[in-house]
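Sorry to interrupt, but I need a hand with the structure work. Could you write out one complete protein record for me, on any chain you like? Just paste the record in under my message, thanks.

. . .
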Amino acid sequence: MKLNKILIFILSGIFSLIVAGSCDNQGNGTKPPPTVIPPELDIESVVYLSKPDGSAKFELQEGLLKKVANPYLPTIQVDTNQKYQQIDGFGFSLTGGSAKLLWSMSSDARAEILEQLFGVGENGIGTSYLRISIGSSDLDEYTFSYNSTSGDVDMNDFDLGYDRRYLIPVLKSILNINPDIRLMASPWSAPVWMKTNNATVGGRLKTEYYRAYALYFVKYVQQMKAEGIVIDAVTIQNEPLHGGNNPSMEMSPVEQLTFVKDYLGPAFETNHIETKIVIYDHNCDRPDYPLTVLANEEAKSYIDGTAFHLYGGNISSMSTIHDAHPDKSLYFTEQWIGAPGNFAEDVKWHIREVVIGSMRNWSRIALEWNLASDPNTGIHTPGGCTTCLGAITIDGNKVTLNPAWYIIAHASKYVRPGSVRVESAYSGNPDDLPNVAFLTPDNGVVLLILNNIDRKQTFNIDIHGTSFSTELGAGEVATIGVRCTHCSSG
């Protein structure tokens, strides 16, 4: 997205650096002259800021970047020649409950909020990735599958059914705004007749239904495509180590390995399904799970990557998988915010761990949990999450923006799909100023920075020798976009 809509400062000419004078290194106490960007040079920049007290929430700032860099200050050094993973997008889970709430709005009110969510204009945050459920999640009004006919192993009665009421119409409206949005789909449970306990909560997939369940995935992708909805990726099972949700289903690493290797992978191949297969989809405390699955070369050949949540463990587990299997992708697919929400603490933790943390540990996406909830943190199944706060609260046609909205906005608006994470290193204590940098498809540089300590920090930013200074108050978050045509060396 072009950054020239808002210019904090515009100069003219070639983007370069002139250092006035020279530093005295003789220890005589002489202060080195400041680094200056000469007035005849061109720079475009844009800065959005969130403050912990809520006085600014992803709010455009002017004058936050200074044209003089102080040589005594620590520096975030950005090197766009060191490239890492490509970014697919940022967004939310569009649960069935979220879809129903959106569809219950008037057409005008719904169009307005969807444009703000998915549009790339001045008022849009450019959400570029969504996760949806295969069948019901716990944030549907009740549990359902796409085939309730016991023993129908050939999926003759498969039908998207309930999803045609709310989810599919909402997705079509979103696709009209952003036809390139990517979708990942995850099941919370197989149909109950395929399970060991014949129930929506817990249980395991019966081995005699592995083939039928693989065909269930095939039919899902095919019928969604017939609706004009392309599923970019599927995960095998949401939270396979947690059988207490409604719905839910447990699946061991060996079970998942066998299902992918002998059933789902071959079924996708036979039916020419190009949808990616993603494993695990659970917490960072069990990297052994995906490592076990990926250790089987035949299973690995069908697998695109691994998905993670962060309700347990450390975000660095994503790098553990990358280091073992650098040819496979990584995805951060879910993190909830509990109602009623705490703007300061939620934004700080989620920006640090979910957005900056996952990006610096090789994730291609960062997704917050449910897109929308009602004023009572509905909609949910009996036994489903009762305190999951949506990114927006919908009360009739009234919409309230909650912390997850701003968390995702800080990344999604300017770090567009196809951006590449690049090297950014802070010369001070990296825990004090977590940051991540991207080179965008239109050759901009975007920095996301959090002041992680309880006092103001002043620092420099250097991009290939061009420096400027800025400051962030305690707990503040900034998205900084800089137009820098020479920053990419190809």
